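Predict the 3D structure for this chain.
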Amino acid sequence: MNSSYEGIVLVNKSINKSSFSIIAQLRKILNVKKIGHAGTLDPLATGLMIILVGKKYTRQASLFTNHEKEYIAKIHLGYTTKSYDSEMELIKKSDYIPSLDEIEKILEEFQGEVLQTPPMFSAKKIKGKRLYKLARQDIEVFREPISINLKTTLISYSYPFLELKITCSKGTYIRSIANDLGIKLNTGAYLYNLTRTKSGKFDLKDAISQDELSIDTVKFIS
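Done. Predicted structure below.
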C-alpha cells in the first residue's frame, strides 16, 4: 500500500458501470487497498461520487453520507416499470398528456417534508433480506414509509419527458419520486435517466470523469 495517497477524490460515474467499479479502478491506479465511498449510484445513473482514499478517510465516511444531495432527473410519462427506472420492461399505462399547469400543481406535493415508501427494487434490508432479491422472485413485502425532505424544481416539460432538479435528504429514492408522480398524474411514469450533481459542499463540476481516471488525472481535494 502506498500511504502517500490519501484524501477525497470526486469522480463522475459513467453510465452502465457499478459504483464499485470506480473503487476497483482507483485501487489499481493508486495501489491503495483501503478505498471507500460516501454513497453509491445505480448502474444506470451518472454523476458525482465521493471517493475516500486511505484509512483516515474511509473511517470518516459517515461525515459525508448524511449530506443533502442534488440530482437532475429525466422522467418518462405514460409508462411504468417494475423497477421504477429504465432497467426493466416498459408497461404502457396511459396516452393522457398532462398540461404544464397540472405538472406544476402536482410538483407542489413534492416539496418539504414528505413520506416516501422505499421501492421493492432497492438494496434496503427488511428482516435481513435485500428487497431487490425478493422483488426478483415476485415477492412484495410491506415497507414502512420514511420521512424525507425535498425541493423539486421544474427544468423543462415536453411530453413525454419531464426534467426536474431535485434536492433531497439522505435515503431518498428518486425512482420512487418518478413512480409517485406518475400515480398522481394518472399517467404512469418511470425514471428515464439520473445524474447526481451535488453532495453537500461537493459539486459535479469538480469531478473527474470515470473514463479518464489515471495516475495523472486523479486529484485529491483534501
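The chain has two domains: 7-66+201-212, 69-199.
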